Amino acid sequence: MLAGFSAFLDLYATQPLLPFLARTFHASALRVSLTVTAPALAVAIAAPIVGRIADRCGLRLMIVASAFALAAATLLAATAASLTQLIGWRLVQGLTTPGMFAVAYIHEEWPAASAGSATAAYVSGTVVGGFTGRALMGTIASAFGWHASFVVLGAVNAAAAVFLWRQLPPERPRHNRETDSVRGAVSAHLRNPQLVATYAIGFCILCAQVATFTYIPFHLAAPPFNLSTAALGWIFVTYLLGAVVTPLAGRAIDRFGRRRPFLAAVVVGVGAMLATLAPALTPVIAGLTFFATSVFVTQAIASSHVGAAATDGRALAVGLYSTFYYIGGSIGSALPAAVWARGGWTACVALIVGVQIVMAIIALACWTDVGRGEVLAEALG
Asked: Which residues lie below 8 Å from residue 175, measured CB to CB, with a gap of 6+?
């Protein structure tokens, strides 16, 4: 959970600052959104490479080393003197992040009967981290400037890295670390229809989430809402319901499989997005709360499906999932700029709902509940 918290503390932390950064650097919405796109794109590029290294060298070692590297990159981001430099350091932050994704570690260390719950707990850590980073960034930047906010986040990252180094349990001995070629291992994963479908779903999940939380600050900073930078940082309190609900979804995965809970979460997400079209703040916040919860539940289910569908090279399989997931996030931060310019928040909502419907169709058509036989056998045994 702490690994997930630390990884997501920084990844999208600049979202509430986008209107502020646009004013500070006299930049367009598309240009300041690169502070969100750059780390997501870096994660997409680095994740399979990091996953392969982790399969060979050890998952715990990769998590701890990445935690210290991320802390250093976050502190260095505070030294940026221009928007271009800030985007560059955000790219470096993204390169250091994939090693902290602990889904493969969970599926190696936890029994199959409880892996869904463990994955959901990890995702809850990412939820709390995502909220904390955005809230701290908005609050501190409003009072002391955006440089100070990176210093504070870097200090939190450093504390988390030390704790992970001292407390993360060692891996069980593994005598069969993967020795196949990278090309062969990647090819094997991409021939697995369950994994390919899950990669497409991951793309859609983060595309919808990033599109929502990158452009809702522009919507809420404008009339009739007129929210301040600090207030925009606190809209991410909407994440916290997901931290409570997602572990419950993990139990549902272990008991009922993945498709039915996933489709139920998508239905909730579509309805929640439509609620954000209301002209009053209360229904918008309620809509964001239930949308965020649906996203975290679908992410926990999809992550668990990767671990169950990949029997070998799990870290690489998770890395490939991360690549598609964060490519989706990169597109989600940039693509809505075009529809925003034409139709504002209403057009963005239409795009996001369309993406959610696509991922539901993929799950319904392609997913089977892989791993359930293993789970039931272990539970009965």
From this structure: none
